[in-house]
Amino acid sequence: MTVPGLLIVISGPSGTGKGSICRCLLKRRPDIFLSVSATTRLPRAGETNGKEYHFKDKTEFEAMLAQDEFLEWASVYDNYYGTPRTPVDSALAQGRDVLLEIDIKGALKVKQKAPEGIYIFLVPPSMEVLRTRITGRGTDSMEVISKRLGKSMEELSYLYEYNYVVVNDVLEEAAAKVESIIIAEKSRTHRYRIQSNAGPEEPLLVEKDLKNW
C-alpha cells in the first residue's frame, strides 16, 4: 500500500518571494516533487523545456484543455499558462509530496479540485519591504510600481482562503516554517490508523491509504 503524498500549494501577492522560498524548501527537502507549469509563450534565453516550463503551442495546449488535463489554467497577454494534472496525480499516488508555486487565482482553482491540499500564503514583513522588493528591478515607472503595490494590497484579502500564513522576512527562517508545516501535517491524527493486531516488531500506528485525491 502506498500512502499518497501531500499537495503543498504556495502562493501570495507579487513581491513576497514565492520562488525564493520554494527553491530554499527544495534544498531542505529534495524528495519533494516540484510541479512544472505549461505555457504557450516562447522560451526565454536560458530556459529549458521541462525545467522552467513545459513549452506548448496553442494547438497542444487547447487539446489538453479539451481533455481536462489541467488542475488550473489561465490566459495572460495572449498566452496560456496551466498546471498539468497528470504529473501531480502520478507523484501523489507514488507517495511523493508535491509542491505548486502558483498565483492566488490559480491556487484557489486548485483548492476547488483538491481541498485536502495544504495551502500556504506568503506575506512580506512590512509594506516598506514589499515596496523595496517590487521596486528592486529598477526598470519600472512609478505608475507601474503603484499599480503593483495596489494589487498586492488587494491580494492580501485572500489570506483567509488558506490554511497557513508565513511571513517571509528571513528567507531560511521562512522556509523552515514551511517545512515545519509539512512535518506537522504528516503527523495529523486523521492520517493514521491503529494496528490493534500488530506483531511485536510491527508499528502500532500506520498511515491510512487516503483516497481523496
Short description:
By secondary structure, the chain is an alpha/beta fold. Helices cover 37% and strands 21% of the residues.
Key words describing this protein structure:
four-stranded mixed beta sheet, 21% strand, 213 residues, alpha/beta, five-stranded parallel beta sheet, Rossmann fold
Task: Explain how this protein is built.
The protein has 213 residues and is α/β, with parallel strands linked by helices. It has one domain: Rossmann fold (3-Layer(aba) Sandwich), CATH 3.40.50. The chain is built from 7 helices and 11 strands. The chain has helices spanning 18-28, 58-66, 85-93, 104-113, 127-135, 142-155, 171-186, and strands at residues 7-11, 33-34, 38-39, 54-55, 70-76, 79-84, 98-101, 118-123, 164-167, 192-194, 205-207. Strands 2-7-1-8-9 form a 5-stranded parallel sheet, with helices on both faces. A 4-stranded mixed sheet has the order 4-3-6-5. Strands 10-11 form a two-stranded antiparallel sheet. A hairpin with a 2-residue loop joins strand 5 (70-76) and strand 6. Helix 1 crosses helix 7. The model has no long low-confidence stretch (mean pLDDT 91).
